[in-house]
Amino acid sequence: MTVDLSPVQEYYKDKTIFITGASGFMGKVLLEKLLYSCHSLKEVIIICRPKRGKAPETRLEEMFKLPIFQRIKDERPEMLKRVTIYQGDVTFDQLGLSGESLKHVTENTNIVFHMAATLKLEGNLRDAIDMNLLGTRRALNVAKEMKQLEAFIHLSTAFCNCDQEVMYEKVYEFPHKPEDLMRLAEWMDVKTLDAITPDLLKPHPNTYTYSKRLAELLVRDHYESMPVIIARPSIVSPSAYEPVPGWVDNLNGPTGLMVGAGKGVIRSMLIDTRHLSEVIPVDYAINGLCVIPYQFAKMSERPKDVPVYNITCADHRKMQWGEVIEMSKEIGYRYPMEAGLWYPDGCITTNKLHHNINVLLFHWLPAYLIDFILLLLGQKRFMIRVQNRISVGLEVLQFFTMRAWFFKSDAYSSLWAMLNEADRKNFNMDMDPEETVPMYIESCVQGGRQYLMKESPDSLPRARLQLKLMYILDRACKTLIVGTLCYWTYGLVARLLGV
């Protein structure tokens, strides 16, 4: 039976796609989307390293068991057989490929999606350079050998040019050269490199955005000889529609804050609520990535400069952080999480002193108290370790939540504008959907419960009862503390006045 293909689907017909980082959050969604919507493709090749004693093939089998691959199993199960997995790693030369696997990749690949990266904002510089910069060079070196290469899409971040007031879709110059930093990381010991890292990073807040900026320069320098393209998503949030609404599999970014606050673990955050939120649903970002090679192939002439796409939400869809937080709180109370540490009623402030006091009283003191109780009971302690991770994460995130960001995303907008009706249905990037922002936040909250915390919707009645009990306990404790302080203050004043 002949199947009518849309223009984008026709472009992918008989194509072989090579993906690095397919086991990551965006990588999984990209893999699923290509298999489901670009079902005329020939093959998808992914590389994966062994992890926790599991071979790449085992990890792929476990990945296919995730809810996001259910619609493929139901509607197009034969597509799963078009995935070829090789053991590989971007921290090795030739990406860890050799012999027949390397030959198969270089002789058949048409499109490369280079998504592998370390996302640890607080990670050390050597690891960031090895994964994000050297890893990109290794991927480019393999891509140079590809005989049928049509597009090499490098996944960057919209925040890598944080010294710019407005971030346009172009590569910005930087005093540091990628080659110099790669050589530096090779010969300098970790201790010395860590010591000079703060000076090297300026004006970047962390090693992630710094290494990503250098990687962009490296990719840009290959544009004359290779069909390279740079895609810069902003903060990637849970899916809006597909593969399933609310899908997420990590605690990075706003999802981690939402879960931490919902569990009552995060009690204070530094956020300027006047600024606009910069998030993009993962399916909107992935649909854009899928269309980018098609648009590049349709161009009548090769652009003078390397194409860059700021994959960000349309300005008219952005809301202030304050509005988003209030909506999230309201929806979070309707869909609470089970067994929280405390009632989820944290403080949002721009005052660092206020925040630090809150962190001391409501993060560290409870953590030490809980670990002390666990010690007395002979149980494994964990709260101080958790709070250490939260503390580092909040410190890193405040750079992004305490300032305004302005992006120009004309190239990304043009992807949606060029699609016909069939492709708009297949690769949705509509910035004027019928669904409202509260509806999306509701799916994010429910997705966090279901996919991250593994809490079934059936547990909601129990979670709501726990929330009510936590509320009573929270108010009782606050009344007791305030009453004690008032009584102590009254006694002190009375003694001073001689009453």
From TrEMBL:
Keywords, comma-separated and alphabetical: Lipid biosynthesis, Lipid metabolism, Membrane, NADP, Oxidoreductase, Transmembrane, Transmembrane helix
Catalysed reactions listed for this entry: a long-chain fatty acyl-CoA + 2 NADPH + 2 H(+) = a long-chain primary fatty alcohol + 2 NADP(+) + CoA
Protein's cellular compartments: Membrane
Fatty acyl-CoA reductase C-terminal domain sequence ranges: 362-455
Example GO biological process: long-chain fatty-acyl-CoA metabolic process
Main location: membrane
Catalytic activity, EC: 1.2.1.84
Ranges that cross the membrane: 357-377
InterPro entries (UniProt xref): FAR, FAR_C, FAR_NAD-bd, NAD(P)-bd_dom_sf
GO cellular component: membrane; peroxisome
Residue intervals of the Thioester reductase (TE) domain: 19-287
One family name in Pfam for this protein: NAD_binding_4
SUPFAM superfamilies xref list: NAD(P)-binding Rossmann-fold domains
Membrane-protein topology: Multi-pass membrane protein
GO molecular function: alcohol-forming long-chain fatty acyl-CoA reductase activity; alcohol-forming very long-chain fatty acyl-CoA reductase activity
Family assignment from sequence similarity: Belongs to the fatty acyl-CoA reductase family.
Function of the molecule: Catalyzes the reduction of fatty acyl-CoA to fatty alcohols.
PANTHER family: FATTY ACYL-COA REDUCTASE (PTHR11011:SF12), MALE STERILITY PROTEIN 2-RELATED (PTHR11011)
Record protein name field: Fatty acyl-CoA reductase
Gene source species: Drosophila mauritiana
